[in-house]
Structure formats: structure tokens, C-alpha cells
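Please check this today:
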Amino acid sequence: MLFGGVVPLLAGFLLAAPGAQAASLTEVTAFGANPGNLRMYEYVPASAGARPPVVVAVHYCTGTGPAFHSGTEFASLADRYGFIVVYPDANVSGQCFDVSSPQALRHDGGSDPTSIASMVRSVVQRHGADADRVYVAGASSGAMMTNVLLGAYPDVFKAGASFSGVPFGCFATTDGSGWNSACANGLISRTPQQWGDLVRAAYPGYAGPRPRVQLWHGATDTTLHHNNLGEAVKQWTDVLGVSRSPVLTDNPQPGWNRTRYGAGGTQAPVEAISLPGVGHSLPTSGMAARAIAFFGLDQATPPTSPPPTTPAPSGACRVTNTVSAWNTGLTDNITVTNTGTSALNGWTLTFTLRSGQTITSGWNATFSPTSGAVTARNVGHNGTLAPGASTSIGFQATHTGDAGAPTGFRLNGSACQAG
């Protein structure tokens, strides 16, 4: 899958931050099952504490693991936030990853994705990393691999960021070729359910939570057409059970058109960023940092206890929530508004789940316990609620038949009005 004639170094995404690093890149030669014959490199920063998160960073065609390490910001971000970075290396002529074969598109089917899953398990075992905080990001061929890993290994990865890729299964071939021209040229269009069914078929019987997805694409990309961004949005909104109507549309910086689906916060279920006038490259730095924020890793240590709260006056809140449900699961997007006259510096929102519902993941808040009477606590970026201000949080859950909305919302102990 050679991207002939394309400068593969995705410029803005791949600008390394200055400054010496306290650790060094190390090759791991024995990491378990390796049907793809990949090489594995890892970066373990001095800042990694007990049970550190893991980010798998996947290179472009003609690239290598060491080149992606030296040419991206992931290592410097790992120094800052204490996560381990794994750099797979394609180790074949052309240095592209297999995202096309039937083996690659099936859970534990063999080929490169199975090798990368082995790398993750090795890091968890050897370094005591947190298996519940494993993420993946990739560029070009690595972006396509990101989507493949999210589809085939939802039990391993919690979220991913794809920079100039294609939907899961779009590059599939059956003739041994690694290149799919129709997909590359943006000529493959399917319904959301058809795209979603491709993902669900990769791991038959899997009923657990699905990873969140961040998608980036240049609008004038002539290598992997920009149409693939819209098709990927169809796919992942269907897989995650959220509406294709954006919750938020904005321009986080000039030249970036961002839409969020299912929730408006930083850890939305699906986020898409389109870049007008940009081809198969990305123009500015800081994009890796945006991916790390999307993963929720942009804090040196995850919160271990709730922050102090300022009680709200009685009846000083309003809650609106939207449930999107499918056969055994649901997402609930909740907007909380402080209708009081005093700012809240730290807050908790309590509510009761319907019988048979169990939270499997959440965004923009911590949720505990996962069933029954639940308390959602703010995270660092949304802890302050001025009078009249709102914040959006949400969760994904499984259910046994009752997919109804939670009841009994209370903000800092005060009953909330329905919005």
C-alpha cells in the first residue's frame, strides 16, 4: 500500500516539541504472537507512574517506528503526562501496514493488527500499564490501521485518533493487493448501518463498549479523498449509537472546521476535523496534543478523589438529557445548567439508572458506581459553573431491555428541573 509520490511526513501533526527527553526509545524483540512480523519500539518516560496509560502511535507508508518517534510530539507529551508510547514498525518493503486482508479485518485473525494487540498486552504485563486506558493514533497508513484496530479490537482500545485515513473495511481486498483505488479515490459510499455492520462483523458476539473516535482530514487530499471523512463519520456514529446531527460545530482555530457528535465536550463519542485547502498533510503543530486531550490524558495524574464542592441553593439547576439506544446498549448525553446566583467551584450530579443498566464508559465526568444510584463528578476543565453556565457530560451503558433515561437528578444535593 505505497502512497507513491506523496510526502508522507504529515507536517503539522509531526512537529516534534523542542527539548531533551529523559528517556530513550527501546526496541522490544519478544512481545508475543507476531503474525505480521512487525518490529516494536517503546518509549517509557521517567514520569510514568504506577499503572500508566498507553498510546500506540502508528506511522505512515515509507515511515518507521523510530521516525514516527522522532518526528512527532507523542514522546514529549508522554514526558509531560506520564503515558507509555508504543511505536509499531511495518518492517516490509514500502513500510505500509496491512489494512486490506481478511485476516487484518477480523479480531485475532492474524496479520499486523494481531501483532499490535500483542504489543499492547506485552506493555501491560511488563510495565504494569493500565489496560483500561489504551489508545491509538496514526497518520495515513497508520490512520487506516487506527480505524482497523478500533473496529477489530474494541476490547483493547478505548479511543483513537485517525489523521488522513479511511473507514474500517473501506480498503478491504480479496486478491492479495494492499491497495483499493475505489476507496482511496472516495468512490465507496455506504449507509451508516452498512458501515457499522462491517465493524460489528469484525468481532462477532462482542457486546462491550466501543471506543470513541477522532477523525482528521484535509479537504483537498488527493491520496485518500476527503469523502472518506464523511463515510467514517457515518460508520462511527452508527457503531457508537449517536446521531449524525452534530451536537457542536465550531472552529477551534483558523482553518479547522470541527464537528462533535453525541456530545459537545472534549471527549465526545465522535469528533471530526476538516481542514480546508489542505491535502495529504496537516499544516500546523499541536494536533497530537489535541488527540491526547481527546483521549483524556492531558493531566499528569488522573483525579483520585472528588474536588471540594460549593453547595448550590435549592432548585438551582436544570438538566436536559438525550438517550440514544440500540439492542443492548445506549448513550446518554446530559447538559447541566447552573440556574442559581452563585458560581459552583466543583460539583456532583447524582441520578438513578434504570434497572439492568450498567455504565461502561463516560466523558467529561467521572461516574461511580456504574449502576443504581450514580454520582457524576466534574473533571478538571469543567469544575467551575458560573450562574447561567452549562456543561455537557455523558456515558455509554449496557441494558437488559429498559433503555429509559435516568431519574432523580440532583446537583450538589439540590433537585434539578427538567430542561
User: Anything to note?
Assistant: Residues 25-295 form a domain with the Rossmann fold fold (CATH 3.40.50.1820).
